[in-house]
Amino acid sequence: MSVVRNAARRTLVAAAASAALFASAGGASAQETPVRHPGNWMYVAVVEGEGVMGDVQGTLLKCPPAKGAGHKNAAAACKQLAAVDGDIAKMKRADVACPMIYKPVTAMAYGMWDGRRMVFAKNFPNACVMGASTGSVFTMGR
After folding, report:
1. HSE value, Cβ hemisphere, 13 Å, CA-based, for 4
2. Between β-strands 105-113 and 40-48, what pairing exists: parallel, antiparallel or unpaired?
3. 3-state helix/strand/coil string of 67-112
4. What's the DSSP call for residue 41?
5. From 68, 108, 127, 130, which residue has the greatest number of CB atoms within 10 Å?
6. What are phi and psi of 100, to 5 degrees?
7. What is the pLDDT of residues 78-113, one digit of tens each?
8. Cis? peptide before 65, omega within 30° of 0
9. How far apart are CA 69 and CA 50, in angstroms?
10. Class of 2-134 per CATH?
C-alpha cells in the first residue's frame, strides 16, 4: 500500500513542480498571451532527488538549434522530438541496461511544438532510465 502512496505522491510532486516551473518561467493563463519563441521550443529541466526542493538543472531547447544556445545536445534532441511530433511521452524506450540503483530524478518540460502547447513531467528511478526513455531531450551536458 505504501508503494502505491509513494508513487502517487511522486506523480503529484512532478505535476506540481511542472506547474510551478511553467508559472515561474512566464507561463500564461488561457486569456494571456504566452511568451513567444520563434519555431519549436521547450524549456527542459531535471530535478534530482525525491522532492521539488532537489537540485534543479534546466535550459531552453530551441528547434532548430541556435548556435551557442543552452542545450548541449540540441541537434539530437530536436531530431528525436521531431520524430514524435514534440510529444516526449511518445518516445520509445531505448534497449539499454540500466543499474537497479534508486537515485530518483524528475524530468519536466513545457513549450510549443508546431503551434501546440506541450507539457511533460515524469519521475524516473535514476538518470539512466530517464535517458533510455527520453533520449537526448534531458541530457543537457550535466
Report:
1. 1
2. antiparallel
3. CCCCCCCHHHHHHHHHHCCCCHHHCCCCCCCCCCCCCCEEEEEEEE
4. E
5. 108
6. -90, 60
7. 999 999 999 999 999 999 999 999 999 999 999 999
8. no
9. 29
10. alpha beta
Question: What's the pLDDT tens digit per position in 36-51?
Answer: 556 799 999 999 987 6
In the chain, domain spans: 2-134
Query: Could you tell me which of 103, 105, 116, 109 has the C-alpha nearest to residue 40?
Result: 116
pLDDT at 71: 86
Cell numbers placing 27: 507561463
pTM score over 0.85: no
Who contacts 41 (Cβ-Cβ below 8 Å, separation ≥6)?
A: 60, 61, 62, 63, 111, 112
The separation between the first and the last C-alpha atoms of the chain, rounded to the nearest angstrom, is 35
